[in-house]
Structures are given as structure tokens and as C-alpha cells.
Design a protein that fits this description.
The chain is of the alpha+beta class. It has one domain: Aminopeptidase. Helices cover 25% and strands 33% of the residues. The protein has four helices and eight strands; from the N terminus they run E-E-H-H-E-E-E-H-E-H-E-E. Helix 1 crosses helix 2. The radius of gyration is 16 Å and the shape is globular. The two termini are 25 Å apart.
Length: 187
């Protein structure tokens, strides 16, 4: 019987070729609101509505900042090197200890879509999670949002199936496509 030991390290800084993955600060609220949290096109397939104003974004970030004290909390703001502000977000939205699984969720401002930033960030986070003892990293997307699925494919995740009417987002009850990668899988 397999037993996994996760060495929870929480949200630590990660650097990739073009990105800095880091903890949020309250100073990130204006950029987060402007770049994605206030954009209905970005939030279309997410589980939360667009923020009505920067004060909502500031409140949300304040909650995240408090949670950074927890060693099993994994949530990064994505900063494009040289830009000096966050352009997107990636987090372990769920951790299941007995199977050492983390489920990822992400979003990014439209200005940076299609440039390979999210696969770059997701690869870095998957490596970090595997290095700390996770065995399985998964992600899901609304079947009507295949671009998110392309990120999953690009980082080496395997398609595991569709749960019919298995998700709820801003579109209502939706079919969800599920992907995962195991620590021992080839990348």
C-alpha cells in the first residue's frame, strides 16, 4: 500500500524563464482588478463573478494574505518579469492529503492569453508540488473552455474523462473535463 508524505512548504517564491510566481500583497489589488478580476471575459468560466470594484479585489487578497500562514496553502500571483505587476493567478484550490493530490486552478488577463505564460507557470507549480511530496496534480475545465484544457495538455497532464453536469461556474451547471499528472509520469 502506498503512503505519501507531503512536506508542506506553503506558497514559496518560484521563478521560471519569464515569470515570477509569488505571494500576493495588498498592493496587487489595482493590477489584479484591472488585468483580470474585473473582466467578465476572463471570469466567464470561473466559479466567482467579476469583481465590482478594486475594493472587492483588495478584500479578497486580504483573505489570501492571512492564509499564507498555513503551510498547506498554495496560491501564487504571476508577475511577468520586467512588468512589475501581476498578470494572472494559479493556486492549489483543493488538497487531498491521503492521496497526496493537489487540484490546480488558474486564470490570466486577456492581454497575456496565447503567449505560453500559463503553461510555463503551471509547469513550475507542478514541479514545486512534486518536489514537496505531492504525488498527483489534477485540474478540470468546463468543456466549453478548451483553451484551459490545452494548458493541461501542454504540461503533460493526461485526460481522465468528462463528468457530465459535474461542475458549477458562471455559466451554470456544466460538463467538466478532468486531467491529471502523477509524479512518476514522463514530462
Amino acid at each position: 500500500m502506498h503512503r505519501f508524505v507531503i512536506r508542506h512548504a506553503g506558497t514559496q517564491g518560484i521563478e521560471s524563464e519569464r515569470l515570477i510566481l509569488r505571494r500576493y500583497t495588498l498592493d496587487d489589488a489595482p493590477a489584479m482588478f484591472r488585468n483580470w478580476a474585473g473582466d467578465p471575459e476572463v471570469t466567464k468560466y470561473l466559479t466567482w463573478p467579476p469583481h465590482g470594484g478594486v475594493d472587492v479585489t483588495r478584500w479578497v487578497i486580504g483573505d489570501w494574505v492571512k492564509r499564507y500562514e498555513q503551510p498547506d496553502y498554495y496560491h501564487w500571483g504571476l508577475e511577468l518579469k520586467g512588468l512589475g505587476e501581476v498578470i494572472g493567478d494559479i493556486a492549489a484550490v483543493r488538497v487531498i492529503e491521503p492521496v497526496a493530490e493537489a487540484e490546480l486552478g488558474w486564470c490570466m488577463g486577456r492581454a497575456w492569453w496565447g503567449k505560453g505564460y500559463m503553461p510555463e507557470a503551471a509547469r513550475a507549480v507542478v514541479k514545486y508540488l512534486f518536489d514537496t511530496g505531492f504525488n498527483r496534480v489534477c485540474a478540470s475545465h468546463d468543456v466549453d473552455n478548451p483553451k484551459s484544457g490545452r494548458v493541461m495538455q501542454k504540461i503533460g497532464m493526461t485526460f481522465e474523462g468528462i463528468s457530465r453536469q459535474g461542475g458549477l461556474n458562471n455559466q451554470g451547471v456544466v460538463d467538466m473535463a478532468h486531467y491529471a499528472i502523477l509524479r512518476g509520469d514522463p514530462t
